[in-house]
Amino acid sequence: MAFKTNKGATAQSDAEVTSRVEALLSQMSLAEKIGQLTQLGVAEFVPGQKPEEVIRRGGAGSVLWLNNTKRFNELQKVAVEESPSKIPLLFALDVIHGYRTVFPVPLAMAASWDPAVTERSQTVAAREARAAGLHWTFAPMLDIARDARWGRIVEGAGEDPYLGAAMAAAQVRGFQGKQLGASDRVVACAKHFAGYGASDGGRDYDPVYLSESQLRNVYFPPFEAAVKAGVGTFMSAYMDLNDVPASGNRWLLRDILRGEWGFQGFVVSDAFAVGNLVMQGHARDGRDAAFRALSAGLDMDMASNTYADHLTGLVEEGSIPTEIIDASVRTILAIKVRMGLFENPYTDEGLLAEVVALPEHRQESRFAAQRSMVLLRNEGHLLPLSKTLKQVAVIGTLADSKTATEGSWMVFGHVPAAVTVLEGIRAKLSNATVEYAPGPEIQRDIASWFDSFGGDPKKEPQTVEDSEAAFQAALVAARRAELVIMVLGEHANMSGEAASRASLDLPGRQEELLKAVVALGKPVVLVLLNGRPLSINWAAQNVPAILEAWEPGTEGGHAVADILFGDAVPGGKLPVAFPRSGSHMPLYYSRNLTHSPEGSPMYNPRYWDGLPTPLYPFGYGLSYTTFSITNLNISAPQVKVGDVLTVTADVTNTGTVAGDEVVQLYIHQRAGSDSRPMRLLKGFERVTLQPGETKTITFQLGPSELGYWSTNVGQWLQDAEAFDLWVGSDSLATLHAEFAVVR
Ligand code: GLC
Question: Considering 160, 270, 299, 719, which one is annotated as catalytic?
Answer without folding.
Answer: 270
